[in-house]
Amino acid sequence: MLDFPPTNLRDLRVSYDLDSLTEETAPSDPHILFNLWLQDALAHALPEPNAMTLSTIGSDGGPNSRTVLLKGLDERGFHFFTNYDSRKGRDIAANPRAALTFLWTQRHHQVCVRGTISKLPREDAESYFNSRPIGHQIGAWVSDQSAVIPGREWLHQRETEMAARFGTGPIPCPPNWGGYTLLASEIEFWQGRVSRLHDRLRYTRHEGGWKMERLSP
Ligand SMILES: Cc1cc2nc3c(=O)[nH]c(=O)nc-3n(C[C@H](O)[C@H](O)[C@H](O)COP(=O)(O)O)c2cc1C
Q1: Is the CB of 51 under 6 A from ligand 1?
Q2: Percent of the chain whose predicted confidence (pLDDT) is above 70
Q3: Domain of 89, in residue numbers
Q4: CATH number at residue 126
Q5: Which has the closest alpha carbon to 147: 95, 87, 57, 60?
Q6: Which is the most buried residue in 61, 131, 151, 159, by most CB within 10 A?
Q7: Is this complex scored with an ipTM above 0.90?
Q8: 24: CA distance to ligand 1 center in Å?
Q9: Ligand 1 center to residue 66 CA distance, Å?
Q10: Active site residues
Q11: Closest C-alpha to ligand 1, atom 31
């Protein structure tokens, strides 16, 4: 019999009472509200405020989720960088529909985004790659992301090989490494409220603008 988990999960709960989200105060463009909430997470020094869960659809029809970092947001959408040959890269190539979830738990905020992913131009990948620390640049050449590998030693050997290959640099951006952007079709904001009667406002693209609806918690 497993002595796990070490605490009674049924007794773990938080009362959500920090703020409210109303139709009257919510901006008509959800990107403005997203930006306000991201600024709020930064102002409260939350850990990794740009971390988001990216969910894709696998070739077997099942979902795959993992965390990636938001590295930009503009009229093209929400940007992140990764290995194009990774599992997520293969999922996106076969089906570009995907979802992002941001959780700023200390602020009782969640944002869920649905949309379509496309590749960012090569210039964006190179510009971001060149801004990364050298160890991260070498890491991108070392990692055959999502492939099964024989052990950690294999990674260290590749790291030594790549460090010798590129010397003191500059290190070029690997051809299979780059950026994606998710263009939102729907963005939902969740604000925790007391008695689990949370505020949920969903924005859906509509006639060149956005339609806002309140959802039951
Ligand atoms: C906080 C955090 C941030 C991460 N950021 C990235 C990222 O920006 N890009 C990336 O490729 N992987 C990132 N990862 C690793 C991914 O979660 C994942 O393990 C990796 O991308 C392989 O995913 P895949 O096999 O589904 O393609 C991050 C992980 C964590 C925990």
Answers
A1: yes
A2: 99
A3: 24-132+175-214
A4: 2.30.110.10
A5: 87
A6: 159
A7: yes
A8: 37
A9: 6
A10: 196
A11: 67
